């Protein structure tokens, strides 16, 4: 029996990434209804909006769903109170120290998963008492680790270090990649990019079309001295890359980045000056679909893939 | 039947990377004798040394073996004459335009494989008439592509673009990773780092020990404005990274790099000032073994791995 399915009480070990400006209640409920685990992305929501999305998600599905909460969120107290008040059962934490809130959530009976990108934080997360780990490779979209370890190198390494289930993220957009990640030792996958451009994603339609048009080499991990983030190369991104080549300081880069560029790119569809956060698998994604089609298609491909190899 | 095994007339679809300063006749013959395909790495050899290694390899194995020839090699004429004179049957080309020599080699009855890291060159290689492609991901050691596409994203993409067999490279050091790469659509794997630290590799023992000691995050893809290369972070590498942050020019970086640093690091074992070329999988490699043990161990792990998944 699959431990990730058991842990969340879901049918398929596919977690939809709780992405900023994409993952509202519509997407989360659709994925959960399809047999995966939907996550509401709290990172881009004001507390009141976050509460509303949880309430609507509960109305839209009777299946388990969760929330993704970046630990650097400014109004953490408010968000935690809403999670408790709304009786959210599953919390994915990211971008911070897992030791800070895990035991609190666990005492409330909440299942906790932490996102890591290196061996040090994998061990730290397990020690802090989380129920599972998302191990995210360099190819993933959005914010990313400094070690730049890719999924094929990361998953076997983390699997050997911890006893709790490992969920692979980064480079997983189809059933073959899912099977591949599971062979490496993952017991489930977290899929971001492919769900970011589903019909139920709240991303702007121009953002979705840009992702469909992506070819290999169209994304880059940039702003490493600020916080590493994988973006589609556009006017903003190219300007920042030039500043880096010219030796500009971290402060100058932060100033150029400013605030609100992820919203501008993903939610408002400003393809030249917004941050277009997406993974390398954007090169493989060729259409906008319903979330349910993504889940059922991946499972079909997965089952075909695992029967495609013969012994040597 | 496996097309890569058929193409080279070998037992297992495992190619040993033709790495500078590691891959002489001892390593190539040992891998070929173990049922894989050994490659002599011409990139670090003077023509006379290259001829000697081919002659010794033919004495040490009656199995198929090949050579890896970087197309930027300064004395190409000499090398090509030696390949013809010594009746080498398999040539892997890299670091250049595959159109330049492929038809010449093919006319001589030589099997030709070209190493690529993006979709553009995959198509170009197939059009030039090569028999197979090595698709190398960002996680690989040594020289690398500018697109930074990782193996899990690259292989399915290339597989969909070409009809000739795809051999996956980058991030493959054990049988699980091999099975994972084959599930993505590869029909064989090229293994570099793990063979670089076998007993038969001509790398310095201090280099091998440094690789055994590697943890995640110990390597970095650097010198991107010159030629991207994945190295273990050491005094030289850290100095270069600082120069990049300070906005130094490509010319200044080239001057700092100078000549002979790969030899210094890999062959002479200068761990602080040499280039320590190795892949991210160095974090997973924990001992120096015989090449035969690597091949048989990988096949055993591969067979166990492909039977480890059940349908969902």
Give structural notes.
Two copies of one chain form a homodimer. Chain A folds into two domains: 7-202 and 287-304, TIM Barrel (Alpha-Beta Barrel), CATH 3.20.20.70; 205-281, no CATH class. Chain A is α/β, with parallel strands linked by helices. An eight-stranded parallel β-sheet of chain A has the order 1-9-8-6-5-4-3-2. Chain A has helices at 3-8, 25-33, 47-60, 76-85, 102-107, 119-128, 151-161, 175-183, 193-196, 205-213, 235-245, 250-257, 261-267, 291-306, and strands at 14-16, 38-41, 65-70, 90-94, 111-116, 132-136, 142-143, 166-169, 188-191, 219-222, 229-232. The interface between A and B is large, with 58 and 58 residues.
Low-confidence stretches of chain A: none
* CATH architecture classification name of the largest domain in chain A: Alpha-Beta Barrel
- The shape of chain A is globular
Proportion of residues in helical segments of chain A: 40-55%
- Domain module tally of chain A: 2
The helix tally of chain A amounts to 14
Oligomer: homodimer
User: What is the average per-residue confidence, as pLDDT of chain A, rounded to a whole number?
Assistant: 97
Estimated share of beta-strand residues of chain A: 15-25%
CATH top-level class of the largest domain in chain A: Alpha Beta
Here the CATH topology of the largest domain in chain A equals: TIM Barrel
Query: Widest sheet of chain A: strand order?
Result: 1-9-8-6-5-4-3-2
What is the gyration radius of chain A calculated from CA atoms?
Answer: 18 Å
């Amino acid at each position: 029996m699959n431990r990730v399915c058991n842990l969340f009480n879901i049918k398929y070990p596919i977690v939809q990434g709780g992405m900023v400006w994409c993952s509202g209640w519509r997407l989360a409920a659709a994925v959960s209804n399809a047999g995966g685990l939907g996550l509401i992305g709290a990172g881009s929501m004001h507390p009141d909006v976050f509460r509303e999305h949880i309430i609507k998600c509960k109305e839209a599905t009777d299946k388990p769903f969760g929330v993704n909460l970046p630990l650097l969120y400014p109004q953490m107290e408010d968000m935690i109170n809403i999670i408790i008040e709304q009786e959210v059962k599953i919390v994915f934490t990211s971008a911070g120290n897992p030791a800070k809130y895990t035991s609190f959530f666990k005492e409330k009976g909440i299942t906790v998963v932490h996102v890591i990108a290196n061996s040090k934080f994998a061990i730290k997360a397990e020690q802090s008492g989380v129920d599972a780990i998302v191990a995210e490779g360099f190819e993933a979209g959005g914010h990313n680790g400094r070690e730049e370890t890719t999924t094929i190198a990361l998953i076997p390494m983390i699997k050997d270090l911890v006893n709790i289930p490992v969920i692979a993220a980064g480079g997983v957009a189809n059933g073959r990649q899912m099977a591949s990640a599971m062979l490496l030792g993952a017991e489930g996958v977290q899929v971001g990019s492919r769900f970011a451009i589903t019909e139920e994603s709240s991303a702007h339609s121009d953002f979705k079309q840009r992702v469909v048009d992506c070819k290999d080499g169209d994304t880059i991990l940039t702003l490493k001295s600020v916080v590493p983030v994988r973006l589609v190369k556009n006017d903003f991104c190219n300007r920042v890359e030039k500043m880096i080549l010219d030796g500009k300081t971290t402060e100058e880069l932060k100033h150029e980045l400013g605030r609100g560029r992820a919203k501008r790119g993903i939610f408002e569809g400003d393809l030249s000056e917004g941050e277009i956060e997406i993974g390398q698998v954007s090169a493989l994604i060729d259409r906008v679909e319903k979330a349910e089609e993504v889940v059922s298609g991946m499972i079909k491909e997965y089952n075909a893939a695992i029967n495609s190899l013969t012994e040597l």
